[in-house]
């Protein structure tokens, strides 16, 4: 730091303030210090800094399945949000349905001295497990608070879109019943159906995968023959599997049944037919979660947006 200070013509205290993103540094001074750091090949030693500041500027993330679109884009969004706040993330993977697995993941992160933990796609039991771990640091879920509200709003948007198209018999293909995201999306769909004074259709549960959507297709096909005309699916991957499974049974989307997905993953526009879906503000939710564990003012999370495509049509 002394060498950087000499090269930049500033004090070591000024170098320290630049490294720690202190707000009261003139832009030209900050640029001079950063240039000196780059030319000298200076890198911050987080282990050494942690000894003096009692903070590692690292946030822990507990994730359960990064092979799914939601968790994978959530990790990327948290990485960006943490970096914008001058932090890094360390990720530990766990079976979120297993208390022992969640506690082990939390212990791995605590051993690295993380300043807070953000839980990605949590199950109902996850927070109880974290309480048992006695983390002693801030813990937040990606889709908690206003994020959960946005999930409910998204579920309502999907159902309201189908109701506006004249569908009165609406079924649901939900996520696992112990996932907070699945619960919130279900609540939004139920609220919209109840507000329209419609009789709820059948509910099936998948595991978020396309394979589970395909596996449930026979039951959905029977329901279509009994009068169901639309299905709200809790994520795009299950919707993909469902549409393929129905096609194998000579049922066409949207001719025989309209289908709405959730997440607007990058491939949804290229499904056959292209998928009507609900788009969430993942970046905003990540910034909110990071702000929550840092005790900072939480930013606005944009409302969900319905993205109409070819998988839905009038009754």
Question: How do the helices and strands line up, and which of them pair or pack?
Answer:
Blueprint: H1 2-8, H2 12-19, H3 27-40, H4 46-53, E1 58-63, H5 69-84, E2 88-93, H6 99-111, E3 117-119, H7 126-133, E4 139-141, H8 146-164, E5 170-174, H9 180-195, E6 203-205, H10 210-225, E7 230-233, H11 236-248, E8 258-260, E9 277-279, H12 282-294, E10 305-307
Parallel strand pairs: 1-2, 1-3, 3-4, 5-6, 5-7, 7-8
Antiparallel strand pairs: 9-10
Helix pairs in contact: 1-3, 5-12, 6-7, 8-9, 10-11
Describe the fold and architecture.
Residues 1-53 form the HTH lacI-type domain. The chain has helices at residues 2-8, 12-19, 27-40, 46-53, 69-84, 99-111, 126-133, 146-164, 180-195, 210-225, 236-248, 282-294; strands at 58-63, 88-93, 117-119, 139-141, 170-174, 203-205, 230-233, 258-260, 277-279, 305-307. With 315 residues, it is of the alpha/beta class. It folds into 3 domains: 2-44, 434 Repressor (Amino-terminal Domain), CATH 1.10.260.40; 57-141, Rossmann fold, CATH 3.40.50; 146-281 and 303-307, Response regulator (Rossmann fold). The longest helix has 19 residues, at 146-164.
